[in-house]
Design brief:
Layout: E1 6-7, H1 11-19, E2 25-27, E3 36-38, E4 43-49, H2 56-63, E5 69-77, H3 80-88, E6 94-98, H4 99-107, E7 112-121, E8 127-132, E9 147-150, H5 156-167, H6 172-175, E10 179-182, H7 185-193, E11 199-203, H8 204-213, E12 216-221, H9 222-226, E13 229-237, H10 238-243, H11 245-264, H12 267-281, H13 308-319
Length: 360
C-alpha cells in the first residue's frame, strides 16, 4: 500500500539458507505440483514482507498456528499492486493488496483468488487525507486544480480520493481536474508542508508523527466514507490453490486466527510479541515503528471477506469506464471456505482457538 521500493535478500544469504540442513528443501512433482517442501514435508510459501512490521501470517507462524506450511522471505515490498503482481507472475506464492487493485488484476486476466482480508480501517487505524491548517481548503470543490499526494496510482489512496470527490458532488470532469501526484509515504508530510502538494494521504506512523508536529488536519478519512471496513485481501493464484489446497487452507486458518489474536490482545502484549519476532528474524530493522502500532486495522472478526468489500470497487471501476459492466462478479474473486470463522469451525466472534469471547 505504500511506495514501490523493494529490498531483496543478498544472494549469498539465500544460498546459505538453501543448503542449511535444518531447512533443506526439495522440489516435489507428485500430484502435478511444483511446490517446494521442507525436509519434514511442509509446503514452503515464498513471500514479500514489510520492513519494521509483522504481518498476521508471520505472527501465526510464531504462535504455532501452522502445521503444514513454512515460509521463505524473498524481500520486502511496500506496494500492494506490486505484491500481488509478484504473486500472479509466480515470484511468490501469495500477495496482499487493496481490493480495487485485485479487481483490476483479475480483470486483466490474472487467475487469482482472494482468500482472506489483509488490512482495513478500524477506530484506531485508518488513512487521513491531510491539508495544511492555513491552506484555506475546506471542501471537495476547493481541490479542483489542486494536487493530492498518493503513494501509488491504481490503489487505495487513488480510489478513496476519487470516491470521496464523487460523493461530495463533483462531476467526472471536475474530478479529472484534481491532480494525483505519486509521493513516497516517507516524503508525503514534507511535500505537504512545503506546498509541493495540497493534500497528502497519511496513515499509520506517518499520520501519527505528522499530527504530533501540528499544523495539519484531515480534510477527510477513509473511515469517514465507509466506516470501519476491510479494504484489502490476500490472493493466491488459482492454479496454486488447485495444486496445493491443504497448504492454502493451513495459511488461511492460521492467519485468520492470528488476526483474531491481534483483535483481542492488549496493545502492550502485541508490541512485545512483534519486538520478539523482528529481533529473531535479524534483518536490522527499525523497532521504533512499533511505537505507533495502534490496532490490526481489521474490524471483521477473523478477517472474513464480505461481498460488499469487493463489489464496491467493481462498481467504481464500471462507473469510471475502466471495467466493462458485468465482466467481473465479486463472488468469483474470493472464497471464505477455508476461514474457520466463516465455515463453521468456530463461532464467528470466538477467540483464536475457538474459545468463547466475553462481550465488552
Amino acid at each position: 500500500m505504500l511506495s514501490t521500493t523493494f529490498r531483496r535478500r543478498p544472494l549469498r544469504a539465500l544460498a546459505a539458507a538453501l543448503v542449511a540442513p535444518a531447512v533443506l528443501a526439495v522440489v516435489t512433482a507428485c500430484g502435478g505440483t511444483d511446490a517446494v517442501t521442507t525436509a519434514d514435508g511442509k509446503t514452503v510459501l515464498r513471500y514479500q514482507g514489510q520492513t519494521g512490521q509483522v504481518t498476521p501470517y508471520e505472527l501465526a507462524d510464531n504462535l504455532g498456528y501452522f502445521t503444514k506450511i513454512s515460509f521463505q522471505w524473498e524481500g520486502d515490498t511496500t506496494s500492494g499492486p506490486a505484491n500481488i503482481q509478484a504473486a500472479a507472475t509466480k515470484q511468490v506464492e501469495f500477495g496482499s493488496a487493496f481490493n480495487g487493485a485485485v479487481v483490476k488484476l483479475a480483470a486483466g486476466g490474472a487467475p487469482v483468488q482472494a482468500v482472506l482480508s489483509s488490512y482495513g480501517s478500524d477506530a484506531k487505524s485508518f488513512t487521513g487525507y491531510f491539508v495544511r491548517d492555513n491552506a484555506g481548503i475546506t471542501n471537495a470543490r476547493d481541490l479542483i486544480g489542486k494536487k493530492v499526494g498518493v503513494n501509488t496510482l491504481g490503489a487505495h489512496h487513488e480510489f478513496v480520493t476519487r470516491e470521496w470527490l464523487h460523493q461530495q458532488g463533483l462531476s467526472e470532469a471536475e474530478i479529472k481536474q484534481v491532480q494525483l501526484i505519486v509521493v513516497p509515504p516517507v516524503n508525503t508530510e514534507e511535500a505537504l508542508r512545503s506546498g509541493q502538494i495540497d493534500v497528502g494521504a497519511l496513515g499509520s506512523v506517518f499520520r501519527e508523527t505528522a499530527v504530533e508536529r501540528g499544523g495539519l488536519h484531515p480534510l477527510f478519512t477513509d473511515k469517514d466514507i465507509f466506516g470501519e471496513f476491510d479494504y484489502g485481501t490476500y490472493v493466491f493464484r488459482k492454479d496454486y490453490i488447485a495444486q496445493n489446497p491443504e497448504a492454502v487452507k493451513d495459511f488461511v486458518q492460521g492467519t485468520a486466527r492470528a488476526t483474531r489474536w491481534l483483535q483481542l490482545t492488549p496493545r502492550d502484549q502485541v508490541v512485545a510479541k512483534f519486538t520478539e519476532i523482528i529481533n529473531r528474524r535479524g534483518r536490522n530493522e527499525n523497532l521504533k515503528l512499533l511505537d505507533y502500532w495502534r490496532s490490526p486495522g481489521l474490524p471483521v472478526p477473523g478477517a472474513v471477506i464480505a461481498d460488499k468489500e469487493i463489489q464496491i470497487w467493481i462498481d467504481w471501476l464500471e462507473r469510471n469506464g475502466e471495467l466493462p459492466k458485468g465482466k467481473i462478479v465479486a463472488k468469483d474473486l474470493f472464497t471464505n471456505k477455508d476461514n474457520p470463522y466463516a465455515n463453521g469451525t468456530y463461532q464467528p466472534t470466538s477467540g483464536p482457538t475457538g474459545e468463547v469471547v466475553a462481550a465488552k
